[in-house]
Structure formats: C-alpha cells, structure tokens
Design a protein that fits this description.
The chain has about 350 residues and is an alpha/beta fold. It has 11 helices and 12 strands. Helix 5 packs parallel to helix 6. The longest helix is centred in the middle third of the chain and has 29 residues, at about 130-160. It is globular and about 55 Å long.
Amino acid sequence: MGRRGLDWKTLGALAVAGAWAGRRVTRPRYELRDKVVLLTGGSRGLGLELARVFARRGARLALVARDEEELARARDELRAGAAEVESFVCDVRFQDQVQRSVREVVDRFGRVDVLVNNAGIIQVGPEETMRVSDYQEAMDTHFFGPLYLVQAVLPGMRQRREGRIVNISSVGGKVPTPHLLPYVASKFALVGWSEGLHAELRQDGIIVTTVCPGLMRTGNPGHVVVKGDHRAEYAWFKVLDSLPYFSMSAGTAARAIVRGCELGKPELILTGRARTGARLQGLAPGLLSELLAVGARLLPRARSPRDQEAWSGAESQSPLTRSFVTRLTQRAETENNERPTPAP
C-alpha cells in the first residue's frame, strides 16, 4: 500500500513538473521571412505543398530531390509566385551526395536555418514478399538520409545557436501497420532518433519537430512499390488514401507542419485518427496489436511466384483505382507535380 501510494505521488509530481516545464518552454513564433529552408523531397507531393507554404512566409528555398525534371517544374512554379528558390539534385541515401548538396546550398544562400527531412518511399505488400533490400532502401531513405543531412547542417546551426529541424515521419512510426513493414520499421527508427535529437539539441538553441501524419492525399500512390496481389494491394492503399474521413489533404498538412515549425513544437501528430492510434499504442500496445492482427486478416495474401515482383502503383491500377472513388487522389496528383499515372 505504501509503495503504491509513493508511486502515485511520484506520478503526480511528474505530471505537475511536466505541465510547469511545458509552460516554461513556450517560445515566440519563429520568424520564417528570409530564413533559408532546405527541403528534401521538395519537387512534388507534400514536399511541394510545404515549399508553397514556406514561400508564402517569405522563406528562401533550397529544394532537394532526385528527379531533375520534377525539380525544374517545382522551381519554375515557385519562382512564378516571386519565391527565391534554387533546386539541387541529390539522392539522400548517399552521404557523399548529401554533403555535396549541403555545400552547394551554403555556397548559394550562406547558411541553412531550417532543415525539413521529407523525402520518402513506400513499399506495400505482405511480409513474405519483402526482402532485406526493401528494408535497406527504406532505412537509407527515412533514417540514414535525415541523419546525413542533420550532421551536415548542425555545425552551422550550433555556431549560430539557432535552427529548426523538421523530420517528417508518419503515424506508421507510432503504430505498426501491417503490409507496410519496411516503411514502419524505418519510420519507427526516425521517430526514436528525432525525439532523442530534440532532447539533446534544445540546449544549443535548435528545436527538432517530429511530425507523424496519418494518411494524406499527396497524389503519390502511383509511385509506391507494390508486392503481393498487386492490384488488390494497390486498391486498398489508394482507396484509403483517397477517402476524406481517412485522409487529409496535403495542403492542410503542410500548413500545420509549417505552423508547428514556427511554434517550435517537439511533436506533431496530424489527424484525430492518427492521434487516437498513437495513444492506444502507448497505453495498450498488446490490445492494438491484436486489433491490427484482425485487420491484417482482411488484407490480400501472396499466392503466386509473380507476387514477389515489385510493381509500381502505376502498374497496379484496376478499374476501382481509376474510378470516382479515388478522384481526390487523382486531383492531388495533378496539383502536386506527381507525374500522370500511365496505363499498365
């Protein structure tokens, strides 16, 4: 009884201390005008929407992505709106390319004030179709890419004792979602590292924001990697991505993310359903695992050797994924510089 009472008193004291600390760390809004923002995955999808919002705040933009043609389209659109923007071709999976690109950004703009790690990939399919290489690619993109970039920009931020780092993870980094295991594993790694990074860098005047969105209508399903029963796998993914109740628009997400950066929020979980899932995972992980196991039974299984092949989302289309049910995603594809989905 005494030990239990002590535990509750300790918990109460911690809660009070946490509330006090939360009030103490309230900071004035970070002024983005004239700040240099390095944004990975900035040529399309959520990255392009983020670039649009940062541009409206008067930031100077360095867009980083792999595809030169997509980067050029994004850069030209933003410049047409009077934004100061340059583009840099870089694959964040490779440290030498990251170091070269950061040097080029600093040569052009003089510094990096805000780093947004947004580049990402998604592999959809059952566990038995995933190979070690799938996990390696996800980790290289979602964990090591951000790590390389942070290590490249940190010396300048520490010298100025100021900076913002925004790591775009996912609710998949909080909730172990079936049929997305390489994505989930890499996003869990990103969340843990990002949260620890915030704790360490706060004393240097640098704030790290970990962002965990739920499903978003970015327009990117045509780019996902699909394994298993390709058309069935792609159908559940794209339909859920398109439904207003289950997903949010990339524009809404981008505005919330930039606002979180300005306010210096350590964590940002977007959509009520994502917050509910994250809380349930924290409070009752066993229960959530059993609920997810039930949901996994409803997902398609791999049944033939062909199911081991990797198809793009564009190659996995079906009448359902081209129908009115997915019209919001199709609209986002056009709006956010996602290349038109070709017929299989």
